[in-house]
């Protein structure tokens, strides 16, 4: 449904999408993404409560990257996990390794199946990490470089690539070729965007929902 600059504001909008899916009966499931900081906003609690009461087909995914801007989740959340909050709303709440592609896929797949059966929402906390600052002006003064480096070693792409090689699904050379191609595709996309003309005023309403 697009991105929203207000922290946590996209969560109730995801509920709206889930309600539409429920009314239309097409078997669609909404997935709402937000960070650990947004999990402390009123919109999060209101949305999860409403989704629970109405058994909406939605999966709430909290990407816990350990810091809401510069504030550690260990200081902002007293509960052991954010996923445990699901219990308060009568829905399953679970925690998974957000840097493990297979773990995330497994949890989300089960939650989506549950939602499609009409059994309501699920709250999933995926534990991961934000490598860079919250913005360009973020000097990362609230954490150490050692901490950042340790989390980089557990990065999802690195781990997924290693598993592909370990299980014989790809060779080191194939993995490296994919990595180089990905960088090339990004560079090509950036170059295309930078060299493209500004859109004409007549397109101001194109792809805009109202």
Total discrete domains: 2
CATH fold description of the largest domain = Rossmann fold
Look at the structure and name the CATH superfamily of the largest domain: Thiamin diphosphate (ThDP)-binding fold, Pyr/PP domains
Give start-end ranges of low-pLDDT stretches: none
Amino-to-carboxy terminus distance: 12 Å
- Sequence of secondary-structure elements: HEHEEEHEHEHHH
CATH architecture of the largest domain: 3-Layer(aba) Sandwich
Global outline: globular
**Strand segment tally:** 6
Percentage of residues assigned to helices: 40-55%
Instruction: Tell me the Rg in angstroms.
Output: 20 Å
Strand order of the largest sheet: 1-2-6-5
CATH first level of the largest domain: which class? Alpha Beta
Strand content: 5-15%
Quaternary status of these chains? single chain
Count of DSSP helices? 7
Structural class by sheet pairing and helices: alpha/beta
Mean pLDDT: 95
